[in-house]
Amino acid sequence: MRVRTWPVVGVVFAVLWVFVVGQPLTPISLLRGFLSGLIVGLPIAYVFRRLYGRRLDLGRGVRALPYAGLYLGAFTRELLWANVDVAYRVLSPGMPIEPEVILVPLRVESDVAVTVIANSITITPGTVSLDYDDETNALYVHGVNGRNPEAIAEPIRTWEDYALEIFAEDASPDDEPRPIVVSGGERDSTADRQRGGVGDD
């Protein structure tokens, strides 16, 4: 079923409003917060309606919900692990930080999907999205643990698998991703094993 996009966006704004304002967890308070959010969110969504498509496929949105939940779960797990890993590296006497920049080719192509992936990378401690290469459809990613560049790319690939489904991209999670490019070249695996550290293979 296709519906106008701006009212749906207004409802999403209303839900976000409930979280931002921090309503008490009672049905009346949540309902009051949601209605207040509609009063604020619907006019804003209407004013900026040209920024998104006219119609939205609600059925497609409902089918994407499980993948959005999986994305959120995978992102939260990686976020928690990355906090522990970065804390270890900062507090360790040897400061086992070996930064590296890698180029991660993407299978997602829409602006919104690329933006979601790039923001997820930047929000996760220890990694930052530096730039997007439009010609190769790839992200430059800086990581504090460059000893295992594939470990930097692994969670990105997982998020991308779910994003392909969420945003109905042309590619499929079954499509083999192109290999990453490491700016510093190959690393000495013997030296890597001697150094060790949290999160290293």
From TrEMBL:
Q: How does it sit in the membrane?
A: Multi-pass membrane protein
Transmembrane annotation, as ranges: 7-25, 31-48
Q: Does the keyword Cell membrane apply?
A: yes
Q: Where is this region: Disordered?
A: 168-201
Keywords from UniProt, A to Z, are: Cell membrane, Membrane, Transmembrane, Transmembrane helix
GO CC terms for this protein? Answer: plasma membrane
Q: Name one GO molecular function term.
A: monoatomic cation transmembrane transporter activity
Its primary localisation, in coarse terms, equals membrane
Spell out the InterPro entries in the cross-references.
Answer: Cation_antiport_E
Q: Where is the composition biased (Basic and acidic residues)?
A: 185-195
| Subcellular location(s) per record | Cell membrane
Does this entry carry the keyword S-adenosyl-L-methionine? no
**Record-linked PANTHER family:** NA(+)/H(+) ANTIPORTER SUBUNIT E1, NA(+)_H(+) ANTIPORTER SUBUNIT E1
**Name of the featured protein:** Na+/H+ antiporter subunit E
